[in-house]
Amino acid sequence: MNNRAIRIFLLSLLAIGMLVPCIAGVASAEEKILKIGTTLPLSGPAAGWGLGLSRMNDYFAEDVNAKGGLKIGDDTYKIKTIAYDHKGQPSEAAANATKLVSQDKIQYLIGGVIAATGMAELPITQPAKVVTTNLWWGKDIIGPDKPYSFRQTISQIEIGPAMYSWIAKNNPQIKKIAQINPNDTSGWDTATAIREAATANGMEVVAEEFFERGTKDMYPFLTRILAKKPDLIDVGVTAPGDGAVIVKQLYELGYKGAKAWTCGTNPFQIIKLSGDEAAEGLWFAYGQDLEGPNSTPETRNLAKKYREQFNEPLAPHHVTSYAMLEIFSEAMKKAGTTDTDKVCKIVEDTGKFDTSFGPVVLIGKQKYGIDRQFVHRMMLAQARGGKLVEIEWLPLPGLGLPAY
Amino acid sequence: MEWHLLVQGGLNGVMLGLNYALIALGLTLIFGIMGIVNFSHGEMYMLGGYVAYFLFGQFGWNFFVTLVGAGLIVGLLGVVLEILVFRPLTTRPKLELTSLIAAVGLAWVLQMLAVIAFGEQDQKVPSAFKGILTMGGAVITKERLAAILIGVLLIVILNLFLLKTKTGRAIRAVAQDKEAAALQGVSVSRISALAFGIGCGLASIAGALVAPIFIVNPSLGSEVILKAFLVVILGGMGSVPGAVLGGLVLGFIESFGSLFFTVPTVMVLTFILIIFILVVRPQGLLGHE
Question: In this predicted complex, what is the ipTM?
């Protein structure tokens, strides 16, 4: 090969080297990807919580991508969802969060559940400025020291007073309360919230029990609780699988008093698992029938699509993930960037949102020292004859929601 | 303390204890014969629950036929797993460690396969025996009573099989001394496969038996395996009567303990008591040195 040929060869290589990044640059401008991550219990007793939340992220991505993507600044993003199973285990949640932050480079982690897993994830997501919107129901989940942590559902701290105020007003004969919760952060904080709410409404808490998630035979401690003769047994923040077993075994042991699932989500699954007779009379604060007349048309469509695809009903708390993605994607559009500091500022400044799930308001400064608690309407419902019957929107005074 | 609460505690303890014993029986049998700590044993219990869900709950089979089916299907799976997974390890050094790792891996694989095949959601199995009985102020459902009676029957059958039949004697001979048993013409590999199958079948029947009482999901096995190991250690590794006694002791501790203390306190007390028993009698209640 002579010098000329070598020169032409080297020039060609140089030209290719210069052209390839340009072509790639054009391609990436056209096909930018916004990764939305989540780590949830996708198997185990709390899978009923996790699966629906994960699927809502997928639904949102499908809907946005079908419309051509999300226009943020000069770029249009396709949404890609990433979900890892932590089985309700904090150690696995921390490992998954590390993977999502370091390897997948996500900026938004939507839909966490079980506070103990949240406490394990926050030390990883906060320094990385990763926004988490979650259903971690613990008092230390949001605060001024955790500016990227938002709670996407009303927690036990807000539900407790509303639920027990309603019970005291409508069922004055209920005086003695027993409550059962899982033995972890979610359970302990829920027990505190229910205890405070019940006593503030003139009731006495005669029994408080904490069990390990996944326990199957609850007879031993239920026997002791029933000996205290409570008027109402509240299964607090118990997961659907565990709670259904408790409700069934309470029925078997002859309990005929009132039952409440103050923080119980997924009411249809709970009625199915515990059985019609055992579930009879059970109150749900999270009892909205998403395909019913009180839901928005968008929510009804989501619920119908979900039931047809997965042959199971969608639960109210699941839809909050879809609503969070609506809120944060709108904020990204307004900010013209996915930068979490700028997006959080816009969300905080906006404060009130109209989502597929209905009106949502961001509060929290008074209680948590920072506005990071989203609140939405709560439908009180009851299991009657194996069906879920909506009673009324639970009054939530002082939370800034529009009148309904 | 009211009298009927003690009766209720006793009934709860028998139910809990027999359930633990049934799971632990297979575990201790496998350890006694093969020296394998089978961490995948809980998954056999879980598969038994799913057999009940499909055969009894979905296809409407008779419950007793379902129990036999659960024992046979998962028992056969156990034989296959012994031949394919565990037998090749018996000729290699450090059997305890390699088989332990293989069993943990197998448990994980079986659980993941269950998630793929059956889905992650909890499933309800309909009640096989409807109705509630009252005994001295205490209550027991007919399905729990049936589980207790069937559990006792299974333990009696297993003991008669091990004590009175030629194959049962061969199993005990292999458990005591493999080489001596082989010199007497016993096929150690055949007996190992059979014992593994029986062990897995027993766990499966236990899972099917309680499926209508509780609920079924893919993580069912990992939830019970810790208790099963506690029972085996308490009763004595490799001891069949020890597994029954260990199961009942653990069941009664949990049941009566819960009448007086909270669940976390009972857990702590249970572990303290088990540590005490093992300090005094390291081989377990009915184990040998």
Answer: 0.83
